[in-house]
Design a protein that fits this description.
The chain is built from 9 helices and 10 strands.
């Protein structure tokens, strides 16, 4: 179990390289209270309808969000893509399942507000990216949230994965894995509960997950949706598992997300 815990939290740093030319991006850094400077790409548009911050899933980096950035820029949105601490080109000792990453999300939002304090800002957070969004303290000052495959609690997320791999035996081992959080990362399971924070969200939120996702199950997504108090929408993507939901249902994903973000742009 110790080896599993080490592998899950191990950093995944890599050289990203130059941004795709069609993004019109420039490399940027923002200082985060997680420790290291957060690396990313800022992709402004000349007639922005607002800005969208793209936050990747666990063990992923900004490259995983490039296709989202493309369709958002075509629709007139400026975009910021980042690497969380311990991933991509952002340094860090451990992945912390949303805890330190929440400080990176805060730094990224502050970057966008510094560029244009009057601009509306939205976040699309995939899995870990959505967790980091909800755990951020103080709550992020944004105008819309899209949350994809976000776990309600780390206990549920860990139990699901252990059951997927080891069945009922895995469920029994879950406490042993969770017990490593404080020792290894300095964070307790009680601090990794996005479900306790979603009621603090005061902007519209679109919550989605794969209909066949066994890591973040339909019941888990329903828990988050029911706890949200702001204007909210739910989309269970047909036949999709714990995968890139944009890639799984590209046309409908883009239609739904742009319609949702359009409400933000029209309220300016």
């Amino acid at each position: 179990m110790f080896a599993i815990g080490w592998a899950l939290a191990a950093p995944v740093q890599t050289h990203i390289g130059k941004p795709p030319e069609d993004l019109g991006a420039r490399p940027v850094e923002s200082k985060s209270n997680s420790g290291p400077a957060v690396h990313g790409w800022w992709c402004p548009t000349t007639t922005s309808r607002g800005a969208v911050l793209l936050l990747p899933g666990i063990r992923a980096n900004r490259l995983s969000m490039v296709d989202r950035a493309r369709f958002l820029r075509r629709a007139g949105y400026s975009v910021l893509l980042i690497d969380f601490q311990a991933t991509g080109e952002t340094k860090g000792d451990h992945i912390t399942f949303g805890w330190k990453e929440s400080r990176d999300a805060l730094a990224a939002v502050n970057f966008v507000h510094d560029v244009d304090p009057q601009d509306h800002v939205a976040i699309i957070g995939s899995s870990l990216g959505g967790v980091a969004t909800l755990l951020a303290t103080p709550p992020l000052k944004v105008d819309a949230l899209v949350l994809e495959a976000v776990y309600p609690t780390i206990e549920i997320a860990t139990r699901n994965r252990m059951e997927n791999y080891l069945g009922a035996f895995g469920r029994m081992l879950t406490p042993l894995l969770l017990g490593q959080l404080q020792l290894r990362l300095g964070v307790s399971a009680s601090q990794l509960r996005p479900v306790d924070h979603i009621a603090d969200v005061d902007c519209p939120v679109l919550i989605m997950s794969g209909e066949n996702d066994r890591n973040t199950r339909t019941a888990d997504t329903q828990i988050l949706f029911e706890r949200a108090r702001s204007r909210k929408q739910l989309w269970l993507v047909p036949k999709a598992g714990h995968v890139d939901l944009h890639r799984a249902a590209r046309q409908e994903y883009e239609t739904r997300v742009l319609a949702f973000l359009g409400q933000m742009a029209e309220s300016r």
